[in-house]
Backbone:
């Protein structure tokens, strides 16, 4: 009897250690099966009504972009370039609604890094075009020569048009086509994984540890808001640099879409938070008897969106001309970030790190 | 408590000590292997550019990629030597120093059970745990002993008892008992568990967990000490800690440390039978003198001093004003495990002396996610980081940087609120033992 007790706990110890890295590895745990219909329903809503449609929309907008873009590349004129702009804007704005879903397939493909690392680095792009030698699959170093920021630089930077008619025009056209097909490839790839096996994985991951769907969502809310507070608004505004403005480092600088993109990003985050027409994290908070917090966060979303919309256009000029409005937007985004990072993360008890932790 | 002073030198079977040594060595080996396999050596001790050192131990710095991995390899080797009882004294001294060194590198990696492991390793240095069922004894490197003074087992029981009782006392607070926090927050996250998952949103479950947990911690040791209740009590140890492991996997090896360590409460007879199952050649069972310590008076004085410290350290919090969970002054090294849900967001701004120049700080530039998370809710770490930022900006050419922190903290489901006086220049504040008066007082809004 005593021997069996010992062997029992030896087995338990050996079995329970769970070797191997569990980072970014949601719901492979066979034990994680249950009947929490609320969570399953909420995650199904996220997959079917938010994330998959968002990638579908981006895919469609990229399709639409192709026609005017090809027309422009065939015949580069002011008019044909102007015709690209609305389609480019629609695609970039659509991208913002996928940005928060940076986990699972998108994270594995590093797609956000490839699609939206800003600012693009013109020097590197020009070098890539003139040498004809570039590898978009090289992470980090080549993030800043592709994606929407690169496309935007190529199309809408000052004097961009004449470079499409000059000496190196054909290489430039090829580069633009390559950038777009890379964006389309990554988006397609992500979408087809969501339409395939990953949807099931996502919907059935009911835990809150790192790598679970709920933790992905809450952590990504915080991550996106941090990006809004930092690279999208605060850094170009000069927060890190004693007020020295770096307008050209903002998202959407060349296309003049900085404010639209920030608003699109935050509006999509709010939509994800409330769960569009179904159950979202806000409803989960209500389920956890945190109604007041859910309302507070939704209200703060509106305040922050309003504050960004109150910045006079073009926003990149306002960094210098209207610092008070930018500062206000920055403060309101920080308030929202604080709520997500502390109150919401705490209430949903999601883990932000995968190291051991004995409850502070 | 566990030490009967009139009989502290009474010889008793050495077997409990032997089991303790073997299981401790094996568990440490597995624990270190797991740590390595998960890539944590690199994540915690190689990648960070800055470490939150312990006050007075600023000289403890990591050894680099190769060095840290070699150290862990050596600690794993030492763990096996401890289990085998081979070159035991050297192995346990090395293990204690090496393990404690690793733990001293960064405060943000502090876990109560790591502290417990350091303390137990320290105690094991002085105990004759390699005198039976050990290669040292078999090879004749030390003389075999079948009996040891009762206090050598008693001090391990006392150490374990202190962990349990202090952990239990820590739970006797209004949030834990009356609001069932943080259980009420944590349990709904466990609704994925089979069978029990469906109950996780119910308040009564949170109260059950809270009250059972407090009662268990407070009283289990007394039932383990009593011969008649011991077997049942150990059943509770198994159930409680395995449940903890199931519900809170992030707690790591702590449940297993407690399950294995608690075997020390069983009798010598039990342990003799247990050891007889080892696939070792038959060990002699009769005919040696009990183990004796050379300096009995000195040993007694040092033991009493050690446990006096063990009693006082967890109580030091009472010398500080304010809410302990909020200020965390006197929180560490006190067996406060899984006790509160706390999260923070910390925004730092560096200014020059005149207040003309102002730089927001991007924390991710200097800290890992874990470091940032831990720093955001602990005043002494916020202060350490502020001092580090002052250094960084001094090197960037700002003569005497001022560092301001705007920190928001939520505790046990209370709405987040400003944590520190954001107008205080933290670069000018010193690390100190007495209360940091720049921590804003805790206010609770929910009853």
Residues:
């Amino acid at each position: 009897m005593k021997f069996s007790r010992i062997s029992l706990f030896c087995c338990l110890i050996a079995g329970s250690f769970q070797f191997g890295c569990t980072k970014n590895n949601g719901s492979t745990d066979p034990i994680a099966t249950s009947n929490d219909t609320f969570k399953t329903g909420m995650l199904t809503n996220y997959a079917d009504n938010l994330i998959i449609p968002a990638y579908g929309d981006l895919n469609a907008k990229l399709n639409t972009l192709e026609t005017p873009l090809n027309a422009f590349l065939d015949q580069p004129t002011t008019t044909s370039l102007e015709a690209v702009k609305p389609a480019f804007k629609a695609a970039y704005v659509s991208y913002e609604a996928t940005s928060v879903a940076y986990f699972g397939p998108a994270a594995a493909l590093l797609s956000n890094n490839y699609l939206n690392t800003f600012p693009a680095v013109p020097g590197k792009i020009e070098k890539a075009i003139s040498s004809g030698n570039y590898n978009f699959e090289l992470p980090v170093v080549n993030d800043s020569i592709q994606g929407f920021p690169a496309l935007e630089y190529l199309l809408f930077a000052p004097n961009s048009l004449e470079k499409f008619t000059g000496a190196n025009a054909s290489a430039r056209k090829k580069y633009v086509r390559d950038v777009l097909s890379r964006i389309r490839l990554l988006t397609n790839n992500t979408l087809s994984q969501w339409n395939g096996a990953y949807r099931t994985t996502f919907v059935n991951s009911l835990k809150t540890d790192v790598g679970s769907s709920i933790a992905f969502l809450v952590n990504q809310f915080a991550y996106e808001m941090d990006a809004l507070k930092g690279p999208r608004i605060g850094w170009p505004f000069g927060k890190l640099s004693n007020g020295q403005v770096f307008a050209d480092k903002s998202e959407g600088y060349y296309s003049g879409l900085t404010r639209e993109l920030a608003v699109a990003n935050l509006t999509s985050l709010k939509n994800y938070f409330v769960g569009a027409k179904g159950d979202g994290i806000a409803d989960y908070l209500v389920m956890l008897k945190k109604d007041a917090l859910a309302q507070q966060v939704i209200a703060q979303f509106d305040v922050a969106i309003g504050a960004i919309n109150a910045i006079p256009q073009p926003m990149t000029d306002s960094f210098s001309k209207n610092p008070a409005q930018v500062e206000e937007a920055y403060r309101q985004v920080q308030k929202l970030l604080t709520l997500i990072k502390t109150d919401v993360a705490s209430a949903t008890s999601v883990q932000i790190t995968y190291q051991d932790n004995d409850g502070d | 408590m566990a030490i009967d002073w009139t009989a502290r030198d009474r010889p008793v079977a050495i077997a409990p000590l032997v089991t303790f040594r073997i299981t401790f060595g094996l568990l440490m080996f597995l624990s270190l292997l797991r740590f390595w396999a998960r890539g944590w050596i690199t994540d915690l001790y190689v990648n960070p550019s800055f470490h939150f050192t312990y006050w007075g131990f600023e000289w403890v710095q990591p050894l680099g990629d190769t060095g840290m991995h070699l150290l862990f390899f050596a600690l794993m080797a030492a763990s096996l030597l401890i289990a085998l009882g081979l070159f035991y004294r050297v192995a346990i001294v090395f293990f204690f120093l090496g393990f404690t060194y690793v733990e001293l590198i960064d405060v943000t990696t502090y876990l109560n059970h790591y502290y417990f492991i350091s303390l137990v390793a320290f105690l094991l240095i002085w105990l004759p745990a390699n005198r039976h069922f050990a290669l040292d004894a078999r090879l004749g490197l030390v003389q075999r002993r079948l009996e040891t003074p009762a206090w050598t087992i008693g001090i391990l029981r006392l150490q374990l008892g202190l962990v349990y009782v202090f952990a239990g006392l820590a739970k006797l607070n209004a949030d834990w008992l009356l609001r069932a926090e943080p259980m009420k927050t944590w349990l709904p996250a466990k609704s994925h568990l089979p069978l029990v998952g469906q109950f996780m949103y119910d308040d009564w479950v949170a109260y059950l967990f809270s009250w059972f947990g407090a009662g268990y911690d407070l009283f289990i040791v007394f039932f383990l000490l009593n011969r008649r209740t011991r077997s049942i009590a150990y059943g509770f140890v198994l159930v409680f800690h395995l449940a903890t492991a199931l519900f809170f996997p992030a707690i790591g090896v702590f449940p297993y440390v407690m399950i294995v360590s608690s075997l020390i409460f069983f009798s010598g007879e039990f342990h003799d039978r247990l050891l007889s199952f080892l696939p070792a050649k038959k060990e002699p069972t009769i005919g040696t003198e009990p183990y004796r310590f050379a300096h009995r008076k000195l040993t007694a004085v040092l033991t009493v001093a050690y446990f006096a410290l063990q009693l006082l350290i967890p109580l030091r919090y009472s010398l500080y004003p304010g809410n302990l969970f909020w200020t965390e002054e006197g929180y560490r090294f006190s067996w406060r495990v899984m006790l509160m849900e706390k999260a923070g967001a910390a925004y730092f701004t560096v200014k020059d002396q005149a207040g003309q120049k102002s730089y927001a700080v991007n924390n991710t530039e200097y800290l890992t996610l874990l470091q940032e998370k831990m720093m955001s809710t602990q005043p002494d770490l916020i202060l350490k980081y502020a001092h580090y930022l002052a250094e960084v900006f001094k090197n960037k050419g700002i003569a005497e940087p001022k560092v301001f922190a705007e920190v928001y903290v939520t505790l046990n489901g209370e709405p987040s609120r400003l944590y520190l006086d954001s107008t205080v220049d933290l670069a000018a504040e010193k690390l100190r033992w007495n209360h940091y008066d720049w921590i804003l007082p805790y206010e609770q809004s929910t009853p």
In short: Chain B has two domains: 9-318, 341-428. Chain B is about 50% helix and 5% strand.
